[in-house]
Amino acid sequence: MGYQAHFRVWRGSADGGELRDYTVEVNEGEVVLDIIHRLQATQCPDMAVRWNCKAGKCGSCSAEINGRPQLMCMTRMSTFDRAETVTVTPMRTFPVIKDLVTDVSYNYVKAREVPAFVPPEDLEPGEYRMQQVDVQRSQEFRRCIECFLCQNTCHVIRDHAENKQAFSGPRFLMRVAELEMHPLDEAENRPEAARGDHGLGLCNITKCCTEVCPENIRITDNALIPLKERVADRRYDPILRLFRR
Ligand code: SF4
Ligand code: F3S
Ligand code: FES
């Protein structure tokens, strides 16, 4: 049975904005993105929202719903009490362009700062051989849909914009970890790059990134902590230290 829901949506631009209240129809089986689309179709044709797949796979429709970073297309209306007001705001960590659309270019800058996979020189594509266990390890990380909800949630940049220069965020530290764990990657000292170039030391393992990941990637346990361990191994190994001296 359909009903009328109370929605509160942030409307505005880089110059400022406000939360506006709407009453809007909800039907069985709908998700938050359906309701935003209905608002666009019936009450506010100029409302800006970014989306593509409506299937939790493109990573475009990230927003904060009742303060929790989530994908709008994967958040069922049936998870809310019918009487409650559902508040939808743009991701807080990135600058607003308009309404629910933010400028996520910070993430593309950080992506470019991670050096690409370096295969062994004497191997042609097709000659790579890996253990299944190594394939499985990186497969978890490659489920990432680049929704940037983890980046939005991590307090290192959410509450401290001044850290954006030094910190690549969980998504791209995970990318460094993925390459570091690749048995055929020959890039020089990725753990040291994670520490020096990507700000791994600023992560204090709060795990908020893992909690909001819609792909359930265990970012902290399987990528960030092992990367920290590899940094410690290399920097504080007494034999390696002796060689360095
Ligand atoms: Fe989104 Fe998870 Fe990828 Fe972060 S790691 S960008 S939360 S899918
Ligand atoms: Fe941030 Fe995740 Fe570390 S939330 S502090 S990157 S564990
Ligand atoms: Fe593609 Fe939501 S529209 S993930």
UniProtKB/TrEMBL annotation:
CDD domains linked to this entry: fer2
Keyword list, A-Z: 2Fe-2S, 4Fe-4S, Iron, Iron-sulfur, Metal-binding, Oxidoreductase
Record GO biological process: respiratory electron transport chain; tricarboxylic acid cycle
Protein name: Succinate dehydrogenase/fumarate reductase iron-sulfur subunit
GO CC field: plasma membrane
Leader sequence segment: none
Cofactor entry: [3Fe-4S] cluster; [2Fe-2S] cluster; [4Fe-4S] cluster
PROSITE patterns in alphabetical order: 2FE2S_FER_1 (PS00197), 2FE2S_FER_2 (PS51085)
Domain 2Fe-2S ferredoxin-type: 7-92
Family: Belongs to the succinate dehydrogenase/fumarate reductase iron-sulfur protein family.
Metabolic or biological pathway, per its Swiss-Prot or TrEMBL entry: Carbohydrate metabolism; tricarboxylic acid cycle
An MF annotation (GO) of this entry: 2 iron, 2 sulfur cluster binding
Gene3D superfamilies, per database record: 3.10.20.30, Alpha-helical ferredoxin
A Pfam family hit: Fer4_8
